[in-house]
Amino acid sequence: MNKVIEADFLPRGTNADFSWPRSISGSGMKERRRILIVDNDPNTTHLVKVLLERTGHYLVLEENGATKAHQSARNFRPDLILLDVVMPETDGGEVAARVEADPELHNTPIVFLTALVTRAEAKSGPHIQGHPFLAKPVSIPELINAIEQHLPVCAASHVSL
Predict the structure, then answer these.
(1) 3-state secondary structure of 33
(2) CA atoms of 75 and 69, how far apart (whole Å)
(3) What's the half-sphere exposure (Cβ side, CA atoms, 13 Å) at 159?
(4) Burial class (CB in 10 A: 0-12, 13-18, 19+), 35
(5) Please, are residues 36 and 147 in contact by the beta-carbon 8 Å criterion?
(6) What is the value of pTM for the model shown?
(7) How much of the chain is helix, strand and coil, in % rounded to 5?
(8) Cα separations in angstroms, 50 against 22, 56, 58, 157
(9) Which residues pair with 113 in a beta bridge?
């Protein structure tokens, strides 16, 4: 059973269909993966949370304070962190460094979100501090593909439906 998601994270001119990767498309899917999204814009984090959770495959925690992001990650134990690069007070690079330095979180994948690059630059393969990134605005299918590509295959979710 394939699901089609037609909502965009932020409006773009195009609308893409999305098919779940085989690893999570089975009807027996009973676990949700934990995603922490850190962005200083509460509208952005809330929209991503609603759209990802609507799929039934993710449990999303929003964090709008970069200075609180590390502690939120320690408490929530995400399977993956979506992290904005440019935020007031503490930028995404500093948050990522704290996560990487934490023995309990250092293996947590991080995907940066940034408006500082174009889509073409993001697709050319460079990384920020060794982490992949997506150019904003990002579509939900593009975001889900990045999440699924970078989630640890063997990591089981902490939450059952």
Answers:
(1) strand
(2) 10
(3) 16
(4) buried
(5) no
(6) 0.73
(7) 35, 20, 45
(8) 23, 10, 10, 19
(9) 84, 134
> pLDDT tens across 63-121, in order?
999 999 999 999 999 999 999 988 998 889 999 999 999 999 999 999 998 876 555 55
The Cα–Cα gap between 107 and 120 comes to 28
Q: What is the pLDDT of residues 129-154, one digit of tens each?
A: 666 778 888 888 989 999 999 998 75
> At 80, which amino acid appears?
L
Look up residue 80 and give its DSSP letter: E
Q: Phi, psi at residue 77, to the nearest 5°?
A: 55, 60
CA pair distance 90, 147, nearest whole angstrom? 24
- Tokens read off for 8: 């965009």
